Amino acid sequence: MARVLHTGDTHLGYRQYHVPERRRDFLAAFEQVASDAIAGDVDAVVHAGDLFHDRRPSLDDVMGALGVLRRLDEADVPFLAIVGNHEAKREAQWLDLYESLGLATRLGAEPVTVGNTAFYGLDFVPRSKREDLAYDFADHDADVAALVAHGLFEPFPHGDWDARDVLASADVRFDAMLLGDDHAPQTKHLEEPHESWLTYCGSTERASAAERDERGYNLVDFDGETGVDVRRRGLDTREFVFVDVELADGEGVERVRERVGEHDLADAVVVVTVTGEGDPVAPAAIEEYGEERDALVTRVTDHREVGAAVDELEVSFADPDAAVQERIRELGLSPAARDVDETIRASTVPDSNLDDRVEEHVRELVDAGRLAQFQPAPAADSAAEEESATSPDGETIDAATESDPGAAATDGDVAATDGEVTPTDEQEEGEKQEEQEEQEEQEKQEKQEEEDDAAIDGEENVVTDAEETATDGTTTDGDEESAGQASMEEYL
């Protein structure tokens, strides 16, 4: 006989809702699984894929998994696993790393015997490769055989890969398939092509708001005489509060707040779903209310139709690259910063080497003494201001408008009279308002510059000899280097 804890879809490293607490929750659930396995004296832990949420987990995530596997190893509980679609890499897998450390066994075509049961593994296989897949498994001499696989299998809902075809094609008779990928726990007993049990363990934490049922794992007993027995065990995970609100005509945000307020929201993930005929509900108002009630995070989904007004919207798409370049010009980045931006966004440097490449580039500039590369460039707004001129009567005139008085005129901003373009009273009033605002903004900038100059003068009183101004009015190398280093430190 053999008893194993069947788990999977732990998705370590998932920073759900962009909050660090959720990332820790996924690791805490996996730690619970290990604790239950040790306390329950199981013969092995079988993981059906998606140990990590991403194929590039952070070092903290890798070390977190390592700590759990060490605990199992110290308790003599084998960890048998396969690779899921979320964590799959083209070559070596993270699971191979743990296997090389003696902390895990990667299941495959060769049997791994635990008690009276031979375990095999089938990593996630993309659809394009399933047709040519060879189900060649080595023989075994155990009483029972089980295949651990990752994918959405029929005859379960949403299946795209028929488990009956797998069973029929395999040259080993499998008494059970221990499955991962579908986060909903479910079990089926098949009679064809031969008797077998199919079971999904479900995820150990809620990876989406659709996963309302309790999270947990399976305990599976394999007996050569009585067959396979699957039992469900729950996990103590973070509280999710699901609030479904159907609004009647005339009801709105206050009704939603009232319904949400019926629950204890402290440290919970609050998921609000709005339906019905009521008034529009601003999600921000409900999210703020949840925050006031100490919820970890609140999310609002309104499933109602927006209405016919949507058909009247016109949507246009700008060139994203041009938009990014425009924004970069507005930031006024230093030449060095622009080089870094180009390295990150447009180069062919692999992501794993970006940090080293950026550090190397910055070091080259410093070693070469090109510290001016770290001086910020004038922002686009400042450059635009420099191109403007002021008329004798105090009016600000844009250079482009001065050369072509009609260049700044747009439909709706001017009124045409006898073929001439003449500003309307409303336009003149708007221009006066804009001129006043520009003047106020300019005064603020001048005041800020005076304060900055005063601060600089104060700092110059305590500079070292190497930073002092040369007798001919030029600055010494020490002064330029100090300014460059300060800018570089701010940038880094």
Brief sketch in words of this structure:
Helices cover 35% and strands 20% of the residues. It has 492 residues and is α/β, with parallel strands linked by helices.
> What is the domain tally?
3
CATH class of the largest domain: Alpha Beta
Helix content: 25-40%
Largest sheet: 6 strands, mixed
Radius of gyration: 33 Å
- What's the CATH superfamily of the largest domain, by name? Metallo-dependent phosphatases
- CATH topology of the largest domain: the name is Purple Acid Phosphatase, chain A, domain 2
Descriptive account of the structure:
The chain has 492 residues and is an alpha/beta fold. It folds into three domains: 2-234, Metallo-dependent phosphatases (Purple Acid Phosphatase, chain A, domain 2, 4-Layer Sandwich); 240-307; 387-445, no CATH class. The protein is built from 14 helices and 21 strands. The protein has helices at 20-39, 59-74, 94-100, 127-130, 163-169, 253-260, 283-292, 320-331, 335-345, 354-367, 380-386, 399-403, 425-460, 477-491; strands at residues 2-7, 44-47, 79-81, 105-106, 112-114, 117-122, 144-150, 153-154, 161-162, 176-180, 186-190, 196-200, 216-223, 227-234, 240-247, 269-276, 297-302, 389-390, 396-397, 414-417, 420-423. The strands form six sheets. The protein has a six-stranded mixed sheet with strand order 4-3-2-1-13-14. A six-stranded mixed sheet has the order 5-6-7-10-12-11, with no helix packed on it. A three-stranded parallel sheet has the order 15-16-17, covered by helices on one side. Helix 1 packs parallel to helix 2, helix 6 runs parallel beside helix 7 and helix 9 (335-345) runs antiparallel to helix 10 (354-367). The longest helix is centred in the last third of the chain and has 36 residues, at 425-460. The chain starts with a strand and ends with a helix. Mean pLDDT is 79; it is low at 383-428 and 455-492.
